[in-house]
Amino acid sequence: MKAICYELKKLTAGKPFIIATLLLLAYFAFMAFCDFDKGVNVIQSVSEEQSTQVTEERLAEIKKEHELLLTKMGAMTAEESERYTATSYIIKQAEYIGGYPEKMSRLALQLYESAKAAAASGNAYEMEYYKAAMNSYNSVKDISAINGAGAACLFARFHCPFATEDININEMISLRWGYVFIVWAVLVSAWLFCCEREYKTDCIVFTACRGKGTEFLRKLAALALTAGAIILVTTLAEILYAVLIYKVDIFASIQSYAEFELCPFKINILTTVILMQLMMYIAVMFTVLLTALFSIKASSPIRGMILGVVFAAASYELMTGYWNIFSAEQSAQLDIIRTVFPPELIHPENYLTGFDMTPLFGVPVPRLAVVIAVSLLFIIAAAAVCAIFYGRSTEIRWKAKLLSLIKSRKATEA
Amino acid sequence: MESKALVFDKVTKSYGSLNALDGFSAELTHGIYGLLGPNGSGKSTLMKCIAGVIRPTSGSITYGGENIYTMGAGGAEFRRLLGFMPQDIGFYPSFTGIDIIKYFALLKGCKYDFDAARAALESVNLGADMKKRVGGYSGGMKRRLGIAVTLIGEPEVVIFDEPTAGLDPEERLRFKNLIREMGKTRTVILATHIISDIEAVADYTLFIKNGRLIRTVENDKSVQSHADVLEEMYMDSFGQKADSV
User: Fold this and answer.
1) Secondary structure of residue B109 in the 3-state scheme
2) Which chain A residues are within 8 Å of B112, Cβ to Cβ?
3) Are A210 and B77 within 8 A, CB to CB?
4) Do B92 and A406 touch (CB under 8 A)?
5) What is this model's ipTM?
6) Regions of chain B with pLDDT less than 50
7) pLDDT in tens, A139-176
């Protein structure tokens, strides 16, 4: 712990850290005080309007369809009956979730239609998927439909700039908090991983018996603590904001907020805020390790920073950007792949606003669990690689110096 | 302390077609060894190879019969026995002198409390400035701090690259006395352009040219004008004058 304190001292005394952290916190303050609630309210009213479009008539149709099927099944042979069991199950479930509060019936209808299509095509995996979805939503059936305007404002302000046909919050929040945090992580980690070269202590540090791999791990711990402290502060600020400014019932189920109606997890608004921050933290640590990999051979912090920013930006753009070069169908397929990559964690709406499962050995697994597992695997693997190779860059610096020395000697001799 | 030899066997360090070290072979036991050679002759490369900052392309370096790069995990055991002060040394400006000693002691796996750290700083006459931030130290003070850091953990092999550059005459004298004391029980390697430094303390002088050991001279400290003899040998070996004090 004492050794980590020295790394924290190195980190926090550096100008890059002070400047980057001040800018980061300034941006957070901007997000907290910038007035864009008007836009959020428009979104809220639009989504409420959509959710009331499911009429009593449509639900009555579903019930009628179910009764018709039951009559048909009565006249079927045992074999025919078995074939229709799956469809029957779906219709039963649809009828059941049809009893949701009005606000939730949009979900019931959506699931019903999807499940019916899956049953008709005989797709076993999709059948399992929708069965799991229905069971999941049935378990949160008792959700009370509350006014989610406060939660809408909270999430839009700090996490998910939702866009609708009427208004795009992205226009108001020109930069996501997640992106700013990622850039902070690159600048600060590149600085810490390369500061020995900057201060010319590398030859002594890297020749000490605990100066290579363990030194790297201490630096990693210092960065993890610092990023963790920022996450903690912003989480607390966000919770205070929710309670004091937006008067959000933070213990209300997340599904009671229209945008998160299809969230697959039985969590409340407070847990959702914490989960989003945790996702951000994993994305930041992913970036730190990515930067560490590029800093191993960087001969100066500036090079580490540039490499880190370039590669982080490239990978984030690749993973989270638009796939304009692909057709819509290809894009949809690639979306499934890219959402299991760590950078996507700064887009929590991708995981928490839909019943989002991915097949893993034939079993539907929440995509969020997959992306967290992938991130942790990368973090562990990258940390192991960096711990082995950290401290080797001094040779590069020495080579450059030696070559210039020999060149000048030859020039003198000549 | 048991006498172990640091043995170089045809050590070569190549960068492309260029050999910074070219089949360097020598055996160093307890005592003080002065390395002499012009810029780019391979002195610093040799020292960096010993310190493990860079690895030779071929050949081997052993200490007590064991390869220094495989002693402990990745040579950690040898690095525990090593003290290295590079030519261009720097420190974290936000740390105080005491912080620096305690931090590097921690990196070297030694436990230095406040008193031990203060004693280390007092040995290089920095006791009065121990709580001052290193960012406010002068060049000479930084070099003295570097010497104190090098001696943390009482290393068996000590390497100094241009240790007296920037020191005033009084500090230089203090440093020479310190080195003499250390040379009785340790292997001390001293690279410098300043012949009088080598003449004053070194038991042996190694002349390096183009990465090769071209001459080894046992210094006769009883001869008053030994510096002149070394100067002549330098001229003879490299065809130029060595730097004066």
Assistant:
1) coil
2) none
3) no
4) no
5) 0.77
6) 244-245
7) 655 555 455 666 666 777 777 655 444 444 444 444 56
